Amino acid sequence: MSYKGRFRVWRGDAAGGALADYTVEVNDGEVVLDVLHRLQATQAPDLAVRWNCKAGKCGSCSAEINGRPRLLCMTRMSVFAPTDVVTVTPMRTFPVLRDLVTDVSFNYAKAREVPSFTPPADLAPGEYRMAQVDVERSQEFRKCIECFLCQDTCHVVRDHDENKEAFAGPRFLMRIAELEMHPLDVADRVPAAQDEHGLGRCNITKCCTEVCPEGIKITDNALIPMKERVADRRYDPLVWLGRTISRRRD
Amino acid sequence: MTEIERHDYDVLVIGAGGAGLRAAIEARERGLRTAIVCKSLFGKAHTVMAEGGCAAAMGNVNEHDSWQVHFRDTMRGGKFLNNWRMAELHAKEAPDRVWELETYGALFDRTADGRISQRHFGGHTYPRLAHVGDRTGLELLRTMQQRIVALQQADHAATGDYEARLRVFAECTVTELLTDPAGAGGHAPIAGAFGYWRESGRHVLFSAPAVVLATGGIGKSFQVTSNSWEYTGDGHALALRAGASLVDMEFVQFHPTGMVWPPSVKGILVTEGVRGDGGVLRNSDGDRFMFGYVPDVFKGQYAQTEDEADRWYDDQENNRRTPDLLPRDEVARAINTEVKEGRGSPHGGVYLDIASRMPAEEIKRRLPSMYHQFKELADVDITAEPMEVGPTCHYVMGGIEVDPDTGQSRVPGLFAAGECAGGMHGSNRLGGNSLSDLLVFGRRAGLGAADYVTGLERRPAIREADVETAAAMTLAPFEAHPAAAGENPYTLHADLQRVMNDLVGIIRTEAEMVAALDRLAELRARVHDVVVEGHRQYNPGWHLALDLRNMLMVSEAVASSALLRTESRGGHTREDHPGLDPQWRHRVLVTHCVDASEAGAGAVVPRTAVEAAERVPMRADLLALFDLPELEKYYTAPELAGHPGRGSRQGGTP
User: Fold this and answer.
1) Could you give the residue numbers annotated as active site of B?
2) What is the C-alpha separation between A232 and A239, in angstroms, rounded?
3) Domain tally for chain A?
4) ipTM, 2 dp
5) pLDDT in tens, B580-593
6) pLDDT tens digits, residue range B396-407?
7) Which residue of B has its CA nearest to A146?
């Protein structure tokens, strides 16, 4: 089955732009990225779209389809009626470079601020022993394909550029959780999660979980447990007492 | 001419997949200033699509495994064409490379006693693949990406600059390597590389005495492929134009199980892990047809009944493995035959059935990405119904000819690792051996580059004339052409894919290769007239126009090599020469650029030529790891004169 689909695609660059209307062929079984590729090959050869694997594994083709953060390669055309107008716009949280391509360097800067895996000093390579049940918690977070849709949708930064400095975003707060739950990691990132990476700004509305194409339960399994660890540390009366005493000694 | 952005590094790594990242880690850890240049964002490379696992004889699941067994399996899988030294280093070093990843933070699936779990895969005698569900490549790439961040954090702590000694140039494409003809005698050594930023379209020049190519494969020249857009044979073509040689380019692996429906996802990979974990292939009659396709060279090594095959999953000591797990070339040909003879599925594939073999929850746990992929893209629930699968272009065994120990090509200072390097896998790669390949030889290439730079007396210099030539080449597609002659890069690409798919696919004939070379000549002529619209800022039409140069060079290398090799072996099947020919086993087809001295100058797509050469005979102690009767299936009698088995048969003692 084939029909003429109606598309509105944002064209422009950092200086500005607008939605452009296109009518383009749509075939059975196609995804939005297929249609954009046909647009490139037939009507708009310089339409900028970032993509790689077209199999939902690399997380490159993030954009917003009818206002929803989605992967272009995992959004099937069959979810729309042939009469629907499909509107494709770049991710709103990041600066536009051109057309559907945004500058996602924010994420790479945040990645560098999270202290890396710190292995135990007494274990040689090959001596690591971990139970499957213990690695599974971090493994869930390591499914992340870094599409940055969670970062795009998070209201802490979506329309608040001023918060970006102090907020790592769900993806990198989850990275902290992943390392904290790694059975053999010996570093402590709990105080920094709150003080430097802005965990407290998250008010668990679960928007990030909703848009995750990997179905990772970011809020329930990463962010809330991290908040609990922070709370345990800050408000545990014994810890509080110990800290107060040691501070007095200083 | 406007001033070009310039950078100086000790080692320049081109490609940020597993091999490139591992090479960069090694070069940086040896104290060299290192840059990584990649076409995509950091962390998106094709390595993320590797699913099943990373082969390493750790012996965690079956203690009988050893490097010798892995070496033997690899050589058998490649039908004894492999560079045996590479296969030896690979089998010996893979376990250390996997364990090293754990110290970077990797989290592999575990055995009951807490060690790294290992799964079955085609052609591997024992369960050998370290894995994370069916997303092992993502785990490897992310782990090394995070290791690079860790190294940058260390540099930041020491110098205040994250990029002091290790920098990633993302979305940046290298279009030409630059050599120094005034360099030491022999071949002109590497002096640097020229490229452009995809985002701005601006040119960029890297001065570096060592370049490591880690650019992956060539699959985007084929219509049905599991490869991403990046796989345009850049490293292969860059190396040719710089004066290096390619080997084994006739060997292209068609993975037996790609998706066949819907059309837009045709070719997307279905991991071999489905079969490793118990999935079986069936034709439209419901028969497990692979039992009828065990070739003579593997007779006796595979189960002959379904009962035995099913018992093997739990008891490998007393049963032989299922023929569903024959090496990939055998399975791909079998599927091709089933479909051709009318026993295919509705969309031109065969059935891969895991639903009837294990509970739904077990399938979702072991193969989460496959479950997700079929559910999302094909509306198929693999826990309830079989998948439809067929062959897809997956991997090129051929690549840049390198020294096995250092990864250096014929060009001093030019190194290669991973898929773009040739030799390791012979005529057919075993599943799981690519992730281990890129770890072992990525590290070795980084080490080789570091040693080379440390030992250099004089830093090779870039010629400004070469820079100007390279710059002009990239801008040619913007020049005005007579409107009638202007070629659309997308159309040219589609035409190239059709030629390679129809004529240079799984089954080949002399007439088809000749026709393919004619068609490629037409395309070479047409690429001169490519015109792109718009400007240089993030312009995918322009990017594709430049990639076409590389695709056309590499495609000619594949078709020319395939024409010359008049036998069938591994990833090269000639309908007109259906058998293995021992006289071809010891010969290697070497591709070079016809006018390497004028690399990059003149022709948009320089011509390539292919010549046969002799392979280096296998070291005696490695040859002795195989029984004589097995070797006799592949080798000529004179080549085996020194085998210890031969001596004892003649009554002597070795």
Assistant:
1) 255, 275
2) 8
3) 2
4) 0.95
5) 999 999 999 999 99
6) 999 999 999 999
7) B43
